[in-house]
Design brief:
- With 144 residues, the chain is an alpha+beta fold.
- The chain contains 5 helices and 6 strands; from the N terminus they run H-H-H-E-E-H-E-E-E-H-E.
- 10% of the residues are buried.
Amino acid sequence: RKLAHARLADGSAWKKFQEMVKAQGGDPTSLEKAGPGGLPVSSRRITWKSPKKGYLSRMDAREMGLLLVELGGGRKKAEDRVNPGVGMVFHRKLGSKVAVGDPLVTVYAPEGDMAPLEARFREALTFSPSRPRLPKLILDAGSK
């Protein structure tokens, strides 16, 4: 954590991100113009809320990625355009206790019917009555 904070503070994490964008065929100068936090964002914001109470015990990451592709934030085919303004901001993480109606995610979306995508989002979630045991997010260098 200390190293991550240090890399964020000294700007090297931002530089590495720019290198990754360039390596994937993106234009890093567009990032330089916008700066961190200055990328385009869709003006349409929708909040998807918890359909159940309990603890958020599973979120299907693959399905989240596929939902972003459906929103236009990724490509189905190499020639597809990516809409840089779409995305998701998650308000709860795994292990969080939630009530029915608590905001789970804000979706930055283009115009269109979001009901089918919200249904898929809800299907990608699992709730449990007790706090789940979660794996460590950061393993020690010697861990496997």
